[in-house]
Amino acid sequence: MRIDDNTLLAPPKGRPPAVLQIVPSLASGGAERGAVDLAGALAAAGWTSYVASAGGPLERELRRAGATHLTVPLASKNPLVMRRNATALMQLIKRHTIDIVHARSRAPAWGAWSAARATRARFVTTFHNAYGARSILKRRYNSVMARGERVIAISRFVADYAASVYGVGADRLRTIPRGVDLQVFDAARVAAPRIISLARQWRLPDGAPVVMLPGRLTRWKGGLDFIAAIALLGRRDICCLLVGREQRRGFRRELEAAIARHGLGGLFRIVEDCADMPAAYMLADVVVSASREPEGFGRVIIEAQAMGRPVVATDHGGARESIVPGVTGWLAPPQNPVALAATINEAVSLGANERVHFAQRATAHVAAHFSREAMCSRTIEVYEELLFPQPADIDVAA
């Protein structure tokens, strides 16, 4: 690690280190969920923890965790707003004596990077996906995520992308998978009234196997492939759920039209808001992740496994690292409704004993590799690398 006049090595003695995480908003996405989880872990460890965003439903949870929210319009991609955000973040860094700025999304990362350089705060980024880069302009826009003094990738798939496309070296690159809260996503902790309430609310038929695809209602999440697969499956004794908010206006109508075209109106429910995902997973006999393009990780895959649910996912991206095929779930070729139908049928057809064994293996797998505690602990270790470097790691500039 190089020390020069523009680098802050460690926070002054006598106060805890201060971390400012940067996300566009505090809605219910993976980056936002990770920011809130880490903010709570930092506070519990005695660090001073801030999150800057445009705000959202997770603010209350952030405050309960002992962290502070700073409202900045970071969801905007307007260049003028982004420039003003850089100034606002620079002021916040100075006011709150921030030691580490951790950016988790591209648009706000530009302002965060500029503010960190101006204030000598350490700069960390998290690569959440293999971002598309079909033009030089887009590649430059994405490149801010490779500018961290430490670059965290949420899977080996993403780490390989960051290294090969943006040249992030092993000295800066750290792979830290997402983690799930095993206190929340625990089948034994979900009381029967929660499950019954959702079943009534969603009008689920008694005794029918439930196949659920959780995720935003957007084309790349594979909802249309899922519908086509269920049509090919030819079973009328199941109930199918699409659970997630509409991201692009009009796509729900497209899903509904596909359901009607295949004559599946009685089999499908579309639920745009679910405040109790652990109970939702308990209703499912099979959970599907049918993303058409590779996901950087795939949070619902580990949440479902933590709940002991059999998972069917498309065979690319981070899913290959979070599912053990035939042991904790199945992988099917992407954009292939025929293969997806066959795999769903195999999962739905599990016997009672097979289902118990699948649940045991899946929960143990997640506990061993994808806990929230491990994710937070390893991220704090990355911060400590920067703030408290070992003497052997320091290269003093001449």
Task: Tell me which oligomeric state these chains represent.
Answer: single chain
Q: What is the molecular shape?
A: globular
Return the string of H and E elements. Answer: EEHEHEHEHEHEHEHEHEHEHEHEHEHHHE
Look at the structure and give the mean pLDDT.
92
Distance between the termini: 13 Å
CATH topology of the largest domain: Rossmann fold
- Write out the CATH superfamily name of the largest domain: Glycogen Phosphorylase B
Which range does the strand content fall in? 15-25%
Overview of this protein structure:
The protein is of the alpha/beta class. The two termini are 13 Å apart. A 7-stranded parallel beta sheet has the order 4-3-2-5-6-7-8, with helices on both faces. It has a 6-stranded parallel beta sheet with strand order 11-10-9-12-13-14, with helices on both faces. The longest helix has 18 residues, at 352-369. The chain has helices at residues 30-44, 59-64, 79-95, 106-119, 136-142, 156-166, 192-201, 223-233, 251-261, 277-283, 299-306, 319-322, 337-348, 352-369, 372-387; strands spanning 2-3, 18-22, 48-53, 68-71, 100-103, 122-127, 150-153, 173-175, 210-214, 239-243, 268-271, 286-289, 311-314, 329-332, 395-396. 42% of the residues lie in helices and 16% in strands.
